[in-house]
From TrEMBL:
<dbReference type="Pfam" id="PF03511">
    <property type="entry name" value="FANCA_CTD"/>
</dbReference>
<dbReference type="InterPro" id="IPR003516">
    <property type="entry name" value="FANCA"/>
</dbReference>
<dbReference type="InterPro" id="IPR055386">
    <property type="entry name" value="FANCA_helical"/>
</dbReference>
<dbReference type="InterPro" id="IPR031729">
    <property type="entry name" value="Fanconi_A_N"/>
</dbReference>
<dbReference type="InterPro" id="IPR055387">
    <property type="entry name" value="FANCA_arcN"/>
</dbReference>
<feature type="domain" description="Fanconi anaemia group A protein helical">
    <location>
        <begin position="324"/>
        <end position="404"/>
    </location>
</feature>
<dbReference type="GO" id="GO:0036297">
    <property type="term" value="P:interstrand cross-link repair"/>
</dbReference>
<feature type="domain" description="Fanconi anaemia group A protein N-terminal">
    <location>
        <begin position="1"/>
        <end position="303"/>
    </location>
</feature>
<dbReference type="GO" id="GO:0045589">
    <property type="term" value="P:regulation of regulatory T cell differentiation"/>
</dbReference>
<feature type="domain" description="Fanconi anaemia group A protein arcN subdomain">
    <location>
        <begin position="428"/>
        <end position="660"/>
    </location>
</feature>
<dbReference type="Pfam" id="PF24783">
    <property type="entry name" value="FANCA_arcN"/>
</dbReference>
<dbReference type="InterPro" id="IPR055277">
    <property type="entry name" value="Fanconi_A_C"/>
</dbReference>
<dbReference type="GO" id="GO:0043240">
    <property type="term" value="C:Fanconi anaemia nuclear complex"/>
</dbReference>
<protein>
    <submittedName>
        <fullName>Fanconi anemia group A protein isoform X3</fullName>
    </submittedName>
</protein>
<dbReference type="Pfam" id="PF15865">
    <property type="entry name" value="Fanconi_A_N"/>
</dbReference>
<dbReference type="Pfam" id="PF24781">
    <property type="entry name" value="FANCA_helical"/>
</dbReference>
<feature type="domain" description="Fanconi anaemia group A protein C-terminal">
    <location>
        <begin position="976"/>
        <end position="1185"/>
    </location>
</feature>
Length: 1209
């Protein structure tokens, strides 16, 4: 217990009083405060202060705290503010609200880790490994919050918010450690999660249950059952959660299979050795999973049989050596045998079901030769019991007895050198290595003794081998190193060794460069790096470099930057002998060579990181140039990645304004090295000196090393203005210079734009759309912004695009159309040709990007004029084509001397060529009208144009129609009024829908057809939204009601299901329907089957033709898998309400349609079968029975006609 000074006590008391005041202001109800209630913003201010203080604490804990650092003291005092003194000094209600609020904020602060990260890393978040200050905070919160309240808070947070998985799972560990009753609460919660998961096949519930169980089991069987026991109890019997149906079994194995890439080997072994119990007919699913898990274990070089008999998978670290685990199993089995006198059941089971492990590992560990005691001990008795039970092969037992007899004469080797898996990192073990490194540094300071450097490096390597416990012939033999660059982890034992080596390398390089330049230092650096490329050490070295470069770069000193840059050069020098690195989900590429991996750790996103990137790149290039001065070009290409050289060009042009100025290049043979060795290195000056080297500039002329316009944009777009070291003015000037002075005039062959502004704009659009659809733009800690999710990026580039588009509008010939649409068409065409779910989702995202980008461009992009006459209608062909094929929006504007006439001409075209714009305007008219009127009045116009007035009248008609005394007539065209009425019906209460439909029966005939078409699209849209059960009910009721009206008035409606764009009356309405809705019209047709099965239209001559066509297209949809996107939930809801409705799944709908056709065909008159051969052409195999019935009935009608007497008179 550390002693506290009076000043600390005073500070702690002041902070405690301050926290009490803030809690009272933020969490006490105004009714409790009476007259003292603070008006205005005081409660919010107090809450903000508390949240900021907690955010500082959590950020500090996440960054890592040094024991005696000022931040550590601040965090400790803040945690002390939750002491019992505060609890007794305040009313319980506001205090409990504050504690619960603090717990929620702690669990949800900075939710940067994904579920896959939690699966991989949760072993590091146990109670023992969690920072003591965080566990102390949890324990103090739980003083006032009961276990039930704490678990309830966890449930609410996980159900409603994005969470920080590390803190959620560490909170679970604290709960099970501190509260014995928490075990049962968590087990009940997990049971509820599993029940919900298998009832609705909810993946999130499944993930949460497994993470909670594994985390609780990490704390040992004393507080929670082991993972093995829980898994066997949950899935190892016929009453398991998965035993209710085949779908449940598929769901379980799909979930387990998805976990395989991130699972620890021990969990895979549990699933293999204790698999879920499944019926024999589903054994193939289990076999597929076991095969996948075994393959993953093989990739990890872990045997499925190496799991111990008594091993607690929850407590195990990395997979242990089989011999080590077998020795533990032997000791546990002997202990159990000593207490019970019987062979333990796990041993008997292993002798049968795990024969390989039992014979290869367990028995050798048990039968280690030794001098047998005169009185048999527990081990001897256990061995004898196994022998009598025939569990030890006779030959093995005989060899054991013979070895024991000779044990007194010959000492057996009980260990194999080189089997250690962890380095010995005690001070005594490290001292020889530290001494050898010190001697190496002493040699660096004496250039006269450089000949002895190689010998001393040999001594260092020998001492390192002793620490690592490796053989001298051991090399790095792995094909790929698995490493998470987002959250690199280095075990404490390895980090001690790696830090010692990296520190020594940096110090040695600094010492050597103080006397001689790199090219005269001999091979010591190459030999040093070679010692780091050992099998066990290289992954730890790369992980530590990842921590330093990616996460701690700005805080590194100049000597560290120089040393690590030189280390990166020599690692690149040895790239041919090094395995590639798999950085996990951080990159799209599966694995990278070491130089490319190190380049990926450098970021220019923010001010500090951009300056560090400049420092590191400058040091690496200059060191490589000097170290390999005879052939610097070749060395740069082999030792450093092109990306690093491009980042240097980007950073120096951005951060060093003098680099943009014309300046004669210097003709020195190599870059100056001396400035890098000075204590106060001026990195900008050093970078500028390197930039102005003639030989270096010649190197940058090579195509693979050129910073192209696209490369520059891809780096520039990642910089968020809020973190940019440049001011707004400086950033604007730099971007203008880069685009218009540097890249625009540069030739295409050198990565420029060849003076073509359209090329520059096109590349900019491509980069923006690619970036904002990539994971690089996502920042889950921010609120949702453009275009989806939280995003970062340089939004100023949109301003540059707007400026360039405006310049092009003034200079580009209008006959060519606008380049933006050509870019959109090219990108969308590249995604065409597939209906797979992934392709469809990607295309929808691309369309969303097109829409968002259009909204940021000048209005003249949409409409432009082909002729000089002001009265001519603006040309909208390209925009109409994009809207008709991809988009759904209204964004209309034009500039003319006669705005009214221009607007009328434009909207008149829209009604026939692009009706989607008109319907969009009607749908959003309540929001759009005030904006249109305001802008129209600002342009000096008094009344709206006639076509806009027509839209207003259609909206007024729709509103008056819904009122009891409807008097407003429906304006023409009828489909516009029908669209307005349809949108109005969507907003009425469900109880008013029937009244509206009754009133609709008395409207004009031409209004009912378009209204029915809009209703069909609404019905399909509601079915395509899985959660829109209420919408499906309303849409179905509207469709059915309109159909009744059409039937009662004997109006034709079948033609709507075979509508073509050539149809004079309603064909243009098809332009409003997305392709998916058009293809799903057969689905809507047979959804309406209960409402027209007995209608008069069924007896019409053309009905059979339409019904058969719809059925064959429905079959094709089903075979193509497109009906899977239709939600069946609404069907069950209808059944519960007693509606005459087919069963919910597409298969059942298909069966109902088929049965309807087979019953209808015999009842149809002969004239219905004309043209049947053409209808069945190419589709006869869709349903042979229906085809046969049609052809048979057609033949029967033909035969009747042949035998009838002719009517001559």
């Amino acid at each position: 217990m550390e002693a506290s000074s009076p000043s600390d006590d005073t500070a702690r008391a002041m902070l405690s009083d301050f926290v009490q005041l803030l809690v009272l202001k933020a969490f006490q109800d105004n009714s409790d405060l009476g007259r003292t209630a603070e008006p205005g913003k005081m409660p919010q201010v107090a809450l903000d202060v508390l949240q900021n203080m907690l955010s500082f604490v959590l950020d500090s804990l996440a960054a890592g705290l040094q024991e005696e650092s000022p931040a550590h003291k601040v965090v400790r005092h803040w945690v002390d503010a939750f002491s019992t003194r505060v609890c007794h000094a305040m009313a319980p209600d506001p205090l409990k609200k504050f504690f619960r609020h603090t717990l929620v904020q702690t669990l949800t602060h900075s939710p940067v880790l994904t579920v896959s990260d939690a699966v991989q890393m949760q072993r590091e978040w146990s109670f023992a490994r969690t920072h003591p200050l965080l566990t102390s905070l949890y324990r103090r919160l739980f003083v006032l919050l009961s276990p039930e309240e704490a678990v309830s808070c966890l449930q609410d947070v996980l159900a409603e918010q994005e969470v920080n998985w590390q803190r959620v799972l560490s909170c679970v560990s604290v709960l099970v450690i501190c509260f014995p009753e928490a075990q049962q609460l968590l087990r009940d919660w997990v049971a509820q999660l599993l029940a919900a998961a298998f009832e609705s096949f909810h993946l999130d519930s499944m993930v949460t249950a497994f993470l909670i169980v594994r985390q609780a089991a990490l704390e040992g069987p004393a507080v929670f059952p082991s993972y093995v026991e829980w898994f066997k109890a949950s899935f190892g019997s016929a009453s398991g959660y998965h035993s209710c149906s085949k779908k449940s079994v598929v769901f379980l194995f799909k979930f387990l299979s998805d976990l395989v890439p991130w699972e620890a080997p021990r969990y895979l072994q549990v699933h293999i050795l204790h698999p879920p119990l499944v019926p024999s007919k589903y054994r193939c699913l289990l076999g597929d999973y076991v095969s996948l898990a075994r393959t993953r274990l093989a990739d990890l070089k872990v045997s499925p049989e190496n799991m111990g008999l008594y091993e607690d998978v929850s407590l195990a670290g990395d997979a242990e050596e089989p011999r080590s685990q077998a020795a533990q199993d032997v000791e546990k089995a002997i202990s159990m045998f000593e207490h019970t006198g019987k062979i333990p059941v796990p041993v008997l089971e292993a002798s049968i079901f795990r024969r390989s492990y039992y014979v290869s590992h367990f028995l050798p560990a048990l039968l280690m030769p030794r001098v047998l005691p005169e009185v048999p001990d527990a081990r001897a008795a256990f061995i004898e019991s196994l022998r009598r039970a025939d569990k030890i092969p006779p030959a093995v037992y005989a060899a054991y007895c013979q070895a024991c007899a000779a044990a007194g004469e010959e000492k057996p080797e009980c260990a194999d050198p080189g089997t250690g898996t962890e380095p010995c990192c005690g001070e005594e073990a490290l001292e020889p290595l530290r001494a050898a490194l010190g001697q190496l540094r002493a040699l660096m300071a004496n250039p006269m003794q450089y000949d002895a450097l190689s010998a001393q490096m040999g001594a260092v390597a020998e001492k390192l081998d002793a620490v690592l416990g490796r053989r001298k012939d051991e090399v790095c033999s792995e094909e790929t190193i698995q490493l998470s660059s987002l959250a690199p982890d280095v075990s404490w034992q390895y980090q001690v060794v790696v830090d010692l080596l990296l520190t020594a390398f940096c110090q040695d390089l600094t010492a050597a460069c103080s006397f001689v330049p790199p090219e005269r230092q001999g091979p010591w650096a190459t030999l040093f790096v070679r010692t780091l490329c050992a099998r066990a050490l290289l992954p730890a070295v790369l992980a530590r470099l990842c921590q330093l470069l990616r996460h701690q770069g700005p805080s590194l000193s100049a000597s560290h930057v120089l040393g690590l840059a030189a280390l990166a050069v020599h690692l690149g020098e040895a790239r041919a002998t090094l395995p590639e690195v798999d950085p996990g989900p951080a990159t799209a590429t599966r694995s990278l060579p070491v130089p490319e991996f190190l380049d990926g750790l450098l970021s220019c996103h923010a001010g500090e990181s951009a300056l560090f990137c400049l420092k590191f790149c400058t040091a690496a290039i200059a060191y490589s140039w000097c170290r390999f001065s005879p052939q610097p070009h070749r060395a740069l290409r082999s030792c450093l990645s092109p990306g690093l050289i491009k980042k240097f060009q980007f950073a120096v042009l951005r951060l060093v304004s003098k680099a943009r100025e014309p300046h004669p290049v210097e003709s020195k043979a190599s870059p100056p090295w001396r400035p890098f060795c000075l204590p106060s290195t001026d990195w900008r000056s050093a970078a500028l000196a390197l930039w102005r080297q003639s030989s270096f500039r010649e190197l940058l002329e090579e195509p693979e090393l050129q910073l192209t316009y696209r490369d520059w944009l891809q780096l520039e777009v990642e910089i968020s203005p809020g973190a940019d070291p440049l001011s707004d003015t400086e950033r604007h000037d730099f971007q203008q210079w880069a685009i218009h002075e540097h890249f625009l005039p540069a030739p295409l062959a050198s990565g420029g734009c060849g003076g073509d502004l359209e090329v520059a704009s096109t590349v900019l659009i491509d980069v923006l759309m690619d970036f904002y659809q990539s994971p690089r733009s996502c920042d889950h800690t921010e609120s949702p912004t453009w275009p989806h999710g939280g995003h970062k990026g340089n939004v100023d580039l949109f301003c540059r695009l707007q400026e360039m588009a405006a310049d092009l509008n003034l200079s580009c010939p209008v006959s060519q159309g606008h380049f933006v649409f050509r870019v959109f068409h090219r990108r969308l065409k590249a995604l065409a040709g597939g209906r797979a779910a992934a392709t469809s989702l990607w295309r929808q995202q691309e369309v969303l990007m097109c829409k968002r980008l259009l909204l940021r461009l000048p209005a003249s992009v949409l409409f432009w004029r082909e002729e000089a006459e002001e009265s001519a209608a603006p040309s909208c062909e390209e925009f109409f084509h994009l809207v008709n094929s991809e988009l759904g929006l209204l964004n209309t504007c034009s500039r003319s001397l006669d705005p009214s006439q221009t607007a009328n001409l434009t909207l008149a075209q829209c009604q026939t060529r692009c009706p989607l714009l008109v319907t969009s305007a009607l749908s959003w008219w309540s929001s759009l009208e005030s904006v249109l009127c305001g802008r129209w009045q600002k342009s000096g116009q008094v009344t709206l144009p006639q076509e806009l007035q027509r839209l207003r009248e259609a909206q007024q008609f729709a509103h008056s129609f819904l009122s009891p005394d409807s008097t407003s007539p429906a304006p023409s065209p009828a489909w516009v009024s029908a669209a307005a009425l349809y949108f109005a019906v969507q907003r009425v209460r469900k109880d008013d829908v029937r009244r509206v439909l009754k009133q609709l029966d008395y409207e004009k005939e031409e209004l009912l057809g378009p209204f029915f078409f809009f209703s069909l699209l609404g019905l399909l849209s509601s079915h395509l939204t899985p959660s829109a059960t209420a919408d499906s009910l309303t849409a179905m009721e509207v469709c059915a009601g309109v159909l009744v009206c059409l039937e009662r008035r004997k109006l034709p409606w079948l033609g709507l299901f075979q509508l073509t764009k050539a149809d004079a009356r309603l064909g243009h309405l098809l332009r409003m329907a997305p392709d998916q809705h058009t293809r799903l019209l057969p689905f809507a047709f047979y959804r309406l089957l209960p409402h027209f099965a007995e209608a008069a239209s069924v007896r019409d001559e053309g009905f059979l033709h339409v019904a058969v066509d719809m059925y064959l297209r429905l079959v094709q949809l089903f075979v193509g898998g497109e009906t899977t996107s239709v939600s069946p939930l609404t069907d069950r809801s209808l059944q519960l309400q007693g509606q005459p409705w087919p069963q919910g799944s597409p298969v059942e709908l298909l069966r109902e349609a088929r049965l309807f056709l087979l019953q209808l065909i015999p009842q149809c008159p002969g004239q219905c079968f004309s043209g049947m051969a053409e209808l069945l052409a190419g589709r006869a195999d869709c349903d042979p029975e229906v085809t046969s019935a049609l052809l048979h009935r057609q033949q029967a009608v033909t035969d009747e006609d042949l035998y009838q007497e002719p009517h001559l008179f």
